[in-house]
Amino acid sequence: MSDNSVGLVKPHYYTFAEPPDEMPLDSGGRLGPITLAYETYGELNERASNAVLIAHALSGDAHVAGRHSAADKKPGWWDYMVGPGRPFDTNRYFVICSNVIGGCKGSSGPTSLNPRTNKPYNLDFPVITVGDMVRAQARLMDHLGIERVLCVVGGSMGGMQALEWAIEFPQRVACAIPIATTCRQNAQGIAFDEVGRQAVYADADWCEGQYSSQGRRPVKGLAVARMLAHITYLSEESMRKKFGRRLRQKEAYGFNFRTDFEVESYLQHQGESFIKRFDANSYLYITKAIDYFDLQRDFGSLEKAFAQVSARFLVLSFSSDWLYTTGQAKEIVRALKINHKNVTFCEIPSSYGHDAFLIENPHMMKIIADFLGHVYQEESAR
After folding, report:
1. How far are the Cα atoms of 45, 49, 150, 219, 373 from residue 179, in angstroms, in the given order?
2. pLDDT of 68-79, one tens digit each?
3. What are the structural domains, with CATH classification, of the chain?
4. What's the rounded Cα separation, in Å, for the pair 295 and 198?
5. Is 340 among the catalytic positions?
């Protein structure tokens, strides 16, 4: 491990909302008890003023940096951003990341035991929203003794959570950094998510969501869902450069229905890797939460949604992202400016598409480090 790695880390778990004090949900239902899996890096200062909350995207989890054991082949999913001397400098900041409710990496979700039946919830788990995810995170901040977070940051669905945090808890957020995200899931995004869900439903092993009780897993459907989604995370340019029309370990077409092209093999690998680490029902719940995300619908207009925020904003987009475009990021910026809020915007040149925020980019790293450092200095002088 490099000198500026956070090294070996371990997950923590916090359980709250024990009956009869379950957490109210946007659906009108209630959920409890709730367990959140989370990891922390660095130390919370005496004023509890240096907390950075990282929110993950659809397929992410709490393991944002470091390794759980020396044998781990890969570090956490945003490792290059977290550690001594890195943008989220653990010599300076206390960094937290939790797995969202509805997930399958230690937090309460459809794979969790339903206390009423002592069996997995499966589809009896209530449908949740991004707002529900954020309110659960707020309970975790209470548990950690953090009244006001220095920063909430995330890409994609993580960016949705950053926006929701700034709106729902305006006095608890000093700054928000939504990256490669949107203020509402558009029709194209909903369409891609629905095709992915239909792929899961069509798998005979889905068993109407009750597959765990029958010892089955809808891996074929989930793999197809992941393959489709992964296409939206790339760009035409990155796919052309990486694959083009190159054939896979052959010099001529096979004239059959086996794999011919490199890009086919790559997508199959993405699907096969995903089914080893993710649950199909969690995929359904989280994509539905993304599809329900619509700040304009929730508040009547985007301008009203941001009317009460007090956080400073750094909004980032990527030039080749066609899932959550620069135009969508500018919608957020315009609404903030109409409300005379403090907002900085940057479109970062990249050929990597939506997933660019997960790929080491010196431009993004410097912008975030400088912005956060400036906010930290201001907060320290309060």
Report:
1. 27, 23, 17, 30, 18
2. 999 999 999 999
3. 12-187+293-380 (3.40.50.1820), 190-287 (1.10.1740.110)
4. 26
5. no
Q: Which amino acid is at 205?
A: D
Angle 313-317-323 from CA coordinates, rounded to 5°: 125
State how beta strands 113-114 and 51-55 pair: unpaired
Three-class DSSP labels, 319-362:
CCCCCCCHHHHHHHHHHHHHCCCCEEEEEECCCCHHHHHHCCCH
pTM for the structure as a whole:
0.97
At CA 196, angle to CA 190 and CA 198, rounded to 5?
Answer: 100
The one-letter code for the residue type at 331 is E
Tokens, residue 372 = 């956060």
Check if 301 is active-site: no
Distance CA 312, CA 328 (A): 19
Which of 132, 193, 321, 355 is flagged as catalytic?
321
Q: Does residue 199 contact residue 224 with C-beta atoms inside 8 Å? A: yes
How many of the other CB atoms lie within 10 Å of CB of 93?
A: 24
The answer to whether the CB of 321 falls within 8 A of the CB of 232 is: no
What is the per-residue pLDDT across 304-335, written as a single tens digit (0 to 9) for each?
A: 999 999 999 999 999 999 999 999 999 999 99
pLDDT band at 43 (very low <50, low <70, confident <90, very high): very high
167 and 295 in contact (C-beta within 8 Å)? Answer: yes
DSSP helix, strand, coil percent of the chain (3-state; round to 5): 40, 15, 40
The residue type at 92:
R
- How is residue 9 annotated by DSSP? -
Per the residue annotation, which of 56, 282, 354, 355 is the catalytic one?
354
59, 107, 156, 212: which one is catalytic? 156
For 321, phi then psi, to 5°, come to -80, 110
The answer to whether the beta carbons of residues 32 and 22 sit under 8 Å apart is yes
354 among known catalytic residues: yes
